[in-house]
Amino acid sequence: MSKIQVRTTLIYEVRQPTNFLFNIGVEQSDYQRCLEEHFTSNPEVPIEACNVGAEGNRLHRAFVQPCELRIDYSALVELTPEVDTSCEVGETDISQLPPQVLPYLNPSRYCESDLLARFAFEEFGQLPRGYQRVQAIADWVNDHLDYEPGTTSGTTTAADVLLQRAGVCRDYAHLAVALCRGIGVPARYLAAYAVDLQPPDFHGVFEAFLDGHWYLFDATRLAPVQGFVRIGTGRDAADVAFATLNGVAILQEKTVTTVWADDAPHQDPPPADEAIATA
Amino acid sequence: MSKIQVRTTLIYEVRQPTNFLFNIGVEQSDYQRCLEEHFTSNPEVPIEACNVGAEGNRLHRAFVQPCELRIDYSALVELTPEVDTSCEVGETDISQLPPQVLPYLNPSRYCESDLLARFAFEEFGQLPRGYQRVQAIADWVNDHLDYEPGTTSGTTTAADVLLQRAGVCRDYAHLAVALCRGIGVPARYLAAYAVDLQPPDFHGVFEAFLDGHWYLFDATRLAPVQGFVRIGTGRDAADVAFATLNGVAILQEKTVTTVWADDAPHQDPPPADEAIATA
Amino acid sequence: MSKIQVRTTLIYEVRQPTNFLFNIGVEQSDYQRCLEEHFTSNPEVPIEACNVGAEGNRLHRAFVQPCELRIDYSALVELTPEVDTSCEVGETDISQLPPQVLPYLNPSRYCESDLLARFAFEEFGQLPRGYQRVQAIADWVNDHLDYEPGTTSGTTTAADVLLQRAGVCRDYAHLAVALCRGIGVPARYLAAYAVDLQPPDFHGVFEAFLDGHWYLFDATRLAPVQGFVRIGTGRDAADVAFATLNGVAILQEKTVTTVWADDAPHQDPPPADEAIATA
Amino acid sequence: MSKIQVRTTLIYEVRQPTNFLFNIGVEQSDYQRCLEEHFTSNPEVPIEACNVGAEGNRLHRAFVQPCELRIDYSALVELTPEVDTSCEVGETDISQLPPQVLPYLNPSRYCESDLLARFAFEEFGQLPRGYQRVQAIADWVNDHLDYEPGTTSGTTTAADVLLQRAGVCRDYAHLAVALCRGIGVPARYLAAYAVDLQPPDFHGVFEAFLDGHWYLFDATRLAPVQGFVRIGTGRDAADVAFATLNGVAILQEKTVTTVWADDAPHQDPPPADEAIATA
């Protein structure tokens, strides 16, 4: 059990009446309790919280007239991750998958698993089924991509990244998700706060459905998975953008802070590739 | 109120143990009552019905050993469409959209609304908001695409189609969906049986969310919307393929029959572009 | 007849032994005489001039060890453009095209005329053949694209730009070239120095083959065509990049200056869409 | 030295006046002498032979009114390939490449070496330079692609194929060409007749520039390189399509026959991966 304090500030120059959907609030579950939370705007505008999509992501919605808009969000979160150290986790037979998991086998905007299926099968189809196979995918992605901010954009897809071999966290996760789906393992994208991520920012990682649970993986290895605070999940980053705008507004500043909030010094994290069942 | 009889037969040569997900059963709702339904396989295999995804599509699942598999499905359906003849249907302000509708603004695998947003806004952004604007999109798609089987494949996207200007029903629907999302109108893909579709096959059309309801459109104009029997909806065709396979099986035959089942001769259908609120 | 002075300085941090191909020297022809020219490097390295490709572009080649490399190029050029003010220029029948022009009907890396042929034919196929039709293409590109630095990269193609509706001079030229080829008009990319281009940089424009000659067009309308000094032509920008590197070197600085060098004040340029036969 | 007889028949239904460019005539060089050649059309139409492009490909051009057009081409060819059995062939330093070879380092329509450069460098950048490295690329392509007619179309590119891992001879050659360019080895596409190709058709292979010469490779291994009769070379298949049409004509029939024409029975061919310097 550990506590983490997250904070983010977003400043927009709103030039025309704009509808904002913010996806920055932490998820609330048995494994992730929110002890305190503040969502404020300046100028004050009505903020509506709502749950969206199959995943029930918690969004904050606001309709804002032209102004300089400042959003401050903070939360104190207590995590009780279920750490499964055995790594003896198998795959669920596709015929036994819970129906609600099936859509995560479908290709999505940034994870074209239909295009990459043959590649995925060729590279990973013969490996022993289970946690280790998904870890092999995460490792392959880590080994074959270069982490280079600026090489990709908001429209870059898994197929693009597989070819160009460079990207950022979002691209790493997209490629891993597409490869998992390509071999028949349901996979989804997870937006998170992450302690010790450098430079501090929102993080993009992924989950695979194994043996009845969603397991968390980070193909970038940039931060310890024990320090992740979940924001939301989706088929890919399109579903969990930190802000979706309809109107005209320019992002002027974005700061993200994620730190351990325990009194006692935090113990060394276990190796980053350890299995964590999250739901 | 009208009755429609649908039938489909699928024959597969199953070469290796294969998991099938069939998406051929008709949807059941207040507007579409299923009076009779039969789903049989030969050889007999256990068939599990399940509801999948945010849309609750009803799928049939089977795990099949190597054999020649024949699937027969039939249903007698009674439709009571809500025909809104006024066409005075406006758009719901994005700030007022029900949360569960918001994901249908996101780009998806075959509807890259992020790529086409500027084009959509340029072509349709200035038109009066409402039903007529979505109809203008459907008309544009009909005017600018050539219906040519063989010009596209299962991986063809809205962006591909916008460039190459040819495709089939699925492509028409994808492009229309992407353009709607591009101007901020939630849109989704609908798989359906369709009376009088030539040649008989599953049909792909689309729905746009207007004024609190989903409205049905067919950019192909190939069959009367009054004769559509809904199978399922999704972000795009990836979510409602008539069959999704995991294993090795070759489709040998597919027949689809959709006919009016009323005793009395069916009256002339109203014009195909009439507004039909469907949910 | 007019004189133009061009200058460019390129500074590289060469980190590993690198082969450079510079494509910055002005073309020499009956219409464009080079009165003075200097190509120097610091540190001094052997520079080899060579003529490359079907177009005979004049390249400068150097193999450079790690260092800070500074390239200075300047030329004084006298232009005697053949201005055809009548605009009564027709198209050459495809069956009459000189053989050496035929490759400019083929699709190339950044000008996928095969993908855009149906679109091109639909938009421009019925217009009267000739100079005005190519001008209509240039106008369409100008009307439908937004000039926005940063929206495209070195791998952006005409098809990308047609969808996203934004780009820079290179993208404008690529799209126009692809559309010309799509309706059967040979077209090629031209790299040039351009007086009054803001901000000063290398410019990318295009030429179409009409009535036995190559005619110059600038879809961006950012600078007067009378002030263009030709560097080289190719199928697309891939053939006339200002520098092609093999090795590891980082561009630190690039400055380009292009000014009228006449004693007398320069007269007002004629409208930018005037026909100029250039070869 | 060996003799090969090639024949091809093309039958078109010409629906509107159409300009044809046929690229079916054999190349003539010191290594490939044409002893006899017939090019006939029925109905008789004027056929103009011309040499096109940087490669000087020999095309036959005809302008045809609506009719059923039959083209018969045959040639008896004597080959004296320069077989270099040592395989001790190095690479030419990029700084020493003849200028006319440099364009074959540029990306082209179907060989996006710019997109694949990082992949190529990662996979092949560290191998010993020379013939064996290009052979390693050809082998990799052969190992990782499945030869499956119907999986690709005329607009499929090397990047598409690298993702989807299936294609035909043209796709194999495109991918190999792109990978060679990606590591700095000039490469081009070669259209050829090929003895023993099953089913008989035009063949697509590639050449790499090594140690001052173009060397021939066939990534498909579908026919012995000793039995290839060269038609033409280009940056990719766009430059050497067997027929390029402008107008409306439907290909009704295409037959290609390529057989040994020696009196004595032909000896067993040497292994297909033997180095053959061809120009």
TrEMBL record, chains A, B, C, D:
SMART domains: TGc
UniProt xrefs under Gene3D superfamilies: 2.60.40.2250, 3.10.620.30
Domain Transglutaminase-like: 161-221
PANTHER family tied to this protein: BLL5557 PROTEIN, BLR5614 PROTEIN-RELATED
Name by which UniProt lists this protein: Transglutaminase-like superfamily protein
UniProt source species: Pseudobythopirellula maris
